[in-house]
Every structure is written in C-alpha cells, then in structure tokens.
Amino acid sequence: MRKAIKYSLIAVIAIAALLLCAGYYMLGYALKPEELVSRSRNIESSLEYMRQTYPEVGHWIDSLQAAEALHDLYIENDEGTPLHALYVPAADSTNHTAVIVHGYTDNSIRMMMIGYLYNRQLGYNILLPDLYGHGLSGGTEVQMGWKDRLDVLRWTEEANHLFGGNTEMVVHGISMGAATTMCVSGEVQQGIYQQPFIKCFVEDCGYTSAWDEFKGELKNQFGLPAFPLLYVASTLCHIEYGWSFQEASPLEQVKKCTLPMLFIHGDADTFVPTWMVHPLYEAKPAPKELWIVPGAEHAVAYKENTEAYTRKVRDFVGTYIH
C-alpha cells in the first residue's frame, strides 16, 4: 500500500512537472515568438517589405522620410515602459485623425498601407503605435491586445493633443490590432475615459478572445485539445504577466461599446477563422456594419481589394467624422 501511494505521488509530481514545462513552453511560443526580433524589431526589413508588397505606399514612405514628415513620438505607459509611435500630420490642416493599430509581431511601419489610406487618400492626420514588445517600443512579450488597450487609450489622448485638441478620431486595427481596437472600444463609454473625440472604430479580422485563438492554433498546429495545456498556460500568463487568456476578450468588450464599428473579415481566413466575426458582430450594439470580403485570407483584405476597402472605410468613417 505504501509503495502504491509512493508511486502514485511520484506519478502525480511527474505529470505536474511535465504540464508545467509544457505550459511554459506554450507561453513562450505564443507570447515571445522569434518573429518579435526577426520581424517586428527589424525596421529596415519592414521598410523593404512595404516597398515590395505595396510599391505605391513604399514610395510614399520614402517621400515622407525625405521631407522629414514622418515623425517619431515616445511616451511611457503606466508601468514606466517606453512606447513608440510614428505620426504624420495631414497635408492640409484638419481635425480628422486616425490611430492605426498593427497586428501580432508586426509594427507601425507594416501598417503604413492603412496610414496611406487615411493620410494620403482621405486627408487625415495619422498616428501608428508600436505595441508593447513590438517595433521600437519597450517590453519583451506580446499582450494579445488586452493590456495594449490601455496603452492605445493613452495614444489616442496623445494624438488628440498632437493634432490640435479638438480631433474627431477613428481607431482602426488589423488582426491583433483589431482585437486591441475592440478591447479599446469597451473602455470608451460616452467619455468616461475622457475620449469623447473617438467617434468610431474599424476592426479588420480580429479574434473573439485570446483563449479562442490559442485554442484553435493548439489544435491546428499540434493536434492538442485545450485541456489541460491551455489552462496551465493561461494560469502561468496570469502569474507572469497579470492577465489570462480568458480575460483578453474582445467579445466581452464589444458588448459594452455603443460607438459605431465597422467589422471586416475575409471569408477564406483560417488563421483567425471567419466564424469569429459573427459572434463579435452580433454582440456589438448598433450602430455597426459588417463586410465579409470574398476570397480574402487573413489580413489581406486591403491588399487584394484596395479600391473597395478604401471606399468602404471612407464611407463608414465619413458618416461619423465630418
């Protein structure tokens, strides 16, 4: 009997140790991917990517740099971490402003195609943050849009001050940036957070929650169910970084948002599956619009449908920003 108890305890300890190791591995795999250094931190590579992928936007960026019209801005978040953003004033003075939020392991440069849409095509001031852990901002891990929402709220205040103090503003994000945008939207309730200048939101291919996204990737990449590994990793995330995968829920945030939101999602998206946009859209109180982009995979709706995308965004934001 004693031997049986002893062996059972050893087995339990071994399984617990294995789960702990696997949980830490998953946490690092998800929140500290190699691409944070090789892609997000590599500014020259990001500039070259834009020149090759969006030649017109690449020429525009080069012209902004030559004219010293592409500016850097640094602030600190509430924990004292330095955060970086790029900004470009409109060619003609305006109070129309867009804060544009990049995705997972991207950076502000890799969102300049949306900056081009707003600044060059629509005549807006633009500000593009590097999220925590990305680009030229401090931090070592991805926050999946959750704690990022508080940083982006700070950036909207900075943008409002930077561009005259009486802006009318849209927050527009893609992928994890869209999740961040939706998380921001739940905090902006009729000026409670002193952001009455935010008039509307555009989210492009955002996920319902970090939990749902990681659950799908755990199954797709490793063939594993959520239990027990995802539960362990989420608990470790809460211990290490102060938030859990379940807590990081754009779905819960949009339920609280009464400002207008445009939802965009490709119908061929498998990375953030298309099905996710439907509960998000249904949960969001009106006013809202939904555009399912035929044939578009993840985060390529603008690239493959530039004119239609520009028209949709122009018409939507133009309804609420005058």
Question: Keyphrases for this structure?
Answer:
322 residues; globular; alpha/beta; Alpha/beta hydrolase; transmembrane helix; Rossmann fold
Silhouette: globular
Instruction: Kindly estimate the percentage of residues that lie in beta strands according to DSSP.
Output: 15-25%
Q: How many extended strands?
A: 8
The figure for the number of domains is: 1
- Sheet with the most strands? 8 strands, mixed
Number of helices: 13
Radius of gyration: 21 Å
Helical content stands at: 40-55%
Short overview:
GO terms for molecular function: hydrolase activity. This protein has a single domain (32-209, 248-320), classed as Alpha/Beta hydrolase fold, catalytic domain (Rossmann fold, 3-Layer(aba) Sandwich), CATH 3.40.50.
